[in-house]
Amino acid sequence: MHQAKSAKSPLPPLLSLPAFWPLAMAESLVKEGAALYEKNIEFVGEEIKLHGGLRPRLATPNLLRLDLRSMALRDYGKPGGIPTLIDAPHAGHTAMIADYAKGQSLVQTLLDNGLAHVALTDWKTATPDMKDLEIDNYLADLVVAIDDLGGRVNLVGLCQGGWMAAMIAARFPDKVNALVLAGAPIDTDAGDGPIKRLAHETPLSTYQELVALGGGLMRGAMMLQGWKNMHPAQHYMLDQIDVYEHIDDPAWLAKEETFESWYESPIDLPGRWYLQAITQLFKENRLAKGEFVGLDRKLDLRGITCPTYLLAGASDDITTPEQVLDAAKYIATPNDKIVRKTVPGGHIGLFMGARTLKEHWPAITRWIAAQ
């Protein structure tokens, strides 16, 4: 009996494998399915967070210097010398674009390269009671900010903040020591970018209808939709694919969340302000023509006589390089006091691109300090 029992040996491994395969495959599929389910849940949660679940935050410690109706004036550094005031874009997003992230902040770049005192216009979202505010109201608050800083500043205008800065320099030349216009549409008839075509080809009634839909405001959410529609494949497909592929990469997600906290948090604009800008600046180009009336004076860009730095992005499709650089044709600053610079990159990269901040803004900062 003992020998007979010993003669029975287990099935050879290769013969036992076929029976094991279905079980092993089922177990593997369960594990893969659970991992896929978990990844999908994480992806959905991240998408919800990225599209409206985050709020913009300024990266650099600052003090609230003024709390005006249209803006909060943020103070950085310490008093000393002529302050440098960054006029952030008032175009549907917050001032975070100028103080974006640690190691990627225009404010910090200015402070690190020789400017001791920097201030920032942090434009507020418009509330229903602000729907009838005009460009004059924003210019007036900008003047209040400059006066509170001592009455004379180096003025750095970014994008839509650039034409406001140019207006101030033309209207009150003694208040501006040096002027930097970065990605600023000064001559809106120059070049052939999509914004120019859109402004000229879209009837004013369309913009008026959008404001009416917003209850007298130009809603930031509507503008965000329009910006996304300029590059639909990127925003409606490729962005989601990127997030899914990097859902297990915390460093990548942290960078994405920082960007989306700014991009997906648009602010509303006063309807009257918006329609005035569309009509008088982008359709009729009144500022470049010397026909825009600001604070009860017809503004002539020849009133700008201070040193001026014009910065454009080579592939900027929001403000084409010509719209910025052509400002030199209209101002009265001596030619040897005008710098024209075109750098690689697009619109947003001019203000918060790591490469531009590292390779170009330090030299601009030193130029400001030398004036």
UniProtKB/TrEMBL annotation:
It holds the Pfam family DUF3141. It comes from the Bacteria. Gene3D superfamilies: alpha/beta hydrolase. SUPFAM superfamilies: alpha/beta-Hydrolases. Signal peptide: none annotated. This is Esterase. It comes from Rhodoblastus sphagnicola.
